Amino acid sequence: HTSTLLLSLYHTSILRRHFPSPSPPSPQTRYTAFYAARSRLHSSSAIILQTIQYTELLCEMFFKRRGGENARWRLVVVLELIKAICRTIMFWVSGRRMVIEGLGTGERPNIPEQQQSQNAEDQQQQQQKESAGDQEITVKEERNKEWNMPRTGMKLPVLPTQDGQSITDFLSKRVICADDIKVASQLVRKITSYQGQLAEMMWIARPLIYALAMQKLQSTAGGKKRSYDWRPWLLGFGMEVAARELGKKNVRERTIGGWRGMTGLEKEELRRRGWGMAWWGMRGAFYENIT
Fold first, then answer.
1. Residues β-bridged to residue 147
2. What integer pLDDT is reported at residue 148 of this predicted model?
3. Separation of alpha carbons 136 and 172, rounded Å
4. Global confidence as pTM
5. Residues in CB range of 136: below 8 A, 6 or more apart
6. Residues with Cβ < 8 Å from 110, sequence gap 6 or more?
7. Which residue, 138, 127, 1, is CA-closest to 57?
8. Which residues contact 189 (CB under 8 A, 6 or more apart)?
């Protein structure tokens, strides 16, 4: 499974270079691709972070089998330390903006279909020649209906009048929002207050603190107490909640309009982090005692 994920990531990066997607990229792809192209340090940190996320489970299983729980948690601490360093680099390189993980590759583009035989190519060429005359006439008619804008030179397309396409469907495909025309760096606001920066650093450090607490518990306690002790879980979950509440308070005080003043990418990232809190139900003492 780990090899499949890494191979898929490599193939996607190749396809994006040779077969760019015709559809406009998502705000997350635009943002991550902007900083990946702007800073080699940011790009390297994102690659290391993604690689660790794909391989950490396999490494944990290997170390647990070879050295037991103590070796496993020592490895987890090292991995979480590297991840925290990568996220911190991404945070500062981006100008103290919310950490948005990703490599800027986006979705895998569609590969154009290749002709299976020479006969199929000949048949297609023949069909193109037969319809060339009709297409030229149609194109000329459409161009005559188009209107050239005098200042910009851009052409306004012809509104649909046939083929069963309504004007509503035609316009809905061309609707854009504020995030679509923003510069990529403006899709996430700078965190200027110390309160907001503290919230982001707490969110970055929370898995490392939890791993350190679990490692210490494994080395000092024995038996069932290692798994059923609530202290590491309460420490990690408490940092998660505290970081989220500080972040919300910073948004209310520093952002014009509060939640409504945030960009779509910021709202999406906060929702993703909120759903990520559900994973605490599958960790440590909560899993052993309740789940």
1. 156
2. 75
3. 29
4. 0.76
5. none
6. 19, 21
7. 1
8. 97, 98, 255, 262, 263, 266
**Number of Cβ atoms within 10 Å of the Cβ of 263:** 19
* Mean pLDDT value of segment 212-226: 74
What type of residue is 106?
A: G
Alpha-helical segments (H) within the chain: 2-18, 27-38, 40-93, 118-145, 167-172, 178-181, 194-220, 225-228, 231-254, 264-276, 284-289
CA distances from 85 to 78, 82, 104, 194 (A): 11, 5, 20, 19
Token pair belonging to 34:
């902007």
Vertex 40, ends 53 and 24: CA angle to 5°? 75
For residues 274 and 240, the answer to whether their CB atoms sit within 8 Å is no
pLDDT digits (tens, 9 = 90+) for 59-91: 999 999 998 888 999 999 999 999 999 999 999
Judge contact between 264 and 176, C-beta under 8 A.
no
Tell me how far apart the terminal alpha carbons of the chain are, to the nearest angstrom.
Answer: 26
Which residues, 6+ apart, have CB-to-CB distance to 218 below 8 Å? 69, 70, 73, 226
Structure-token match 């000092």, residue found: 220
d(Cα 211, Cα 205) in Å, to the nearest integer?
10
Residue type, 222: G
Residue 239 CA to its chain's centroid (Å): 23
- Token digits for 216? 């210490």
